Amino acid sequence: QSVLTQPPSVSGAPGQRVTISCTGSSSNIGAGYDVHWYQQLPGTAPKLLIYGNSNRPSGVPDRFSGSKSGTSASLAITGLQAEDEADYYCQSYDSSLSGWGVFGGGTKLTVL
Amino acid sequence: QVQLQESGPGLVKPSETLSLTCTVSGGSISSYYWSWIRQPAGKGLEWIGRIYTSGSTNYNPSLKSRVTMSVDTSKNQFSLKLSSVTAADTAVYYCARDSVSIAARNWFDPWGQGTLVTVSS
């Protein structure tokens, strides 16, 4: 059972917009700790997609955006492309677990 | 840019110790925290622990009794040892750089490509 809860799967057609939620609690996201997002393409290592809730590293398309409110965070992908099909993970810090890296369970994005 | 590469045995027997090394290239290992993260097949990511170049460590409480990390700044390497392994420790093991020293703000970037370790007799 992950500390951060994500939907197991989401899907969308090319060109559409999808969102992936990451729900936490008062000891992690709700405490104001930053949320970060990673994209894991099949057979590869996770790659940083969003850091500090809403910041994109250089090279990440602006189709990807992140937000945070209360005890939840969201990753939005607009103009969905076939190459976006991947697993997406959120990550934060949890004060009750002394954990530097608590992850969500991951969400499989399928591009229809 | 900085690149990370994991190395070590791909097969470890139950009850023995898993040992992996991460080699950092394209930059210095100094003045950063470095983490190990694992992923069982078809499952999510689990942070194992991190080490600073001074040797200071922080471990996941669920693994703390079995984990030892070390660093060799002369070789630009850091290492993971996980003792008394079982089949549940079978996973792809990644090394990664912590991007900031403040745990509450930290993210992991970059990551190594990962190495599969299977625990089996």
Question: Could you please describe the fold and organization of this structure?
Answer:
The complex is a heterodimer of chains A (112) and B (121). With 112 residues, chain A is an all-beta fold. Chain A is 0% helix and 45% strand. In chain A, the strands form two sheets. In chain A, strands 1, 3, 4, 7, 8 and 9 form a six-stranded mixed beta sheet that branches. In chain A, a hairpin with a 4-residue loop joins strand 7 (86-94) and strand 8. Chain A is globular. In chain A, 40% of the residues are buried. Chain B is an all-beta fold. Chain B has no helices and eleven strands. Chain B has strands at 3-7, 11-12, 18-25, 33-39, 46-52, 57-59, 67-72, 77-82, 91-98, 108-111, 115-119. In chain B, strands 2, 4, 5, 6, 9, 10 and 11 form a seven-stranded mixed beta sheet that branches. A four-stranded antiparallel beta sheet of chain B has the order 1-3-8-7, with no helix packed on it. In chain B, a hairpin with a 4-residue loop joins strand 7 and strand 8 (77-82). At the A-B interface, strand 7 and strand 8 of A face strand 5 and strand 10 of B.
Defining key terms:
heterodimer, A: 112 residues, mainly beta, 3-stranded antiparallel beta sheet, 0% helix, globular, B: 121 residues, 4-stranded antiparallel beta sheet, 11 strands
The secondary structure category of chain B is mainly beta
Share of helix of chain A, binned: under 10%
- What structural class do the secondary elements of chain A suggest? mainly beta
Tell me the major beta sheet of chain B. Answer: 7 strands, mixed
Beta strands of chain B, count? 11
Strand content of chain B: over 45%
First-residue to last-residue Cα separation of chain A: 28 Å
Poorly predicted tracts of residues of chain A: none
Major protein interface: A-B, 27 and 25 residues
Shape of chain A: globular
Biggest pleated-sheet summary of chain A: 6 strands, mixed
Number of strands of chain A: 9
Mean pLDDT of chain A: 94
Order of helices and strands of chain A: EEEEEEEEE
What would the principal axes of the Cα set say about the shape of chain B?
globular
Oligomer: heterodimer
**Percent of residues in helices of chain B:** under 10%
What's the mean pLDDT score of chain B? 95
Low-confidence segments of chain B, ≥5 residues, pLDDT <50? Answer: none
Distance between the termini of chain B: 39 Å
Q: DSSP helix count of chain B?
A: 0
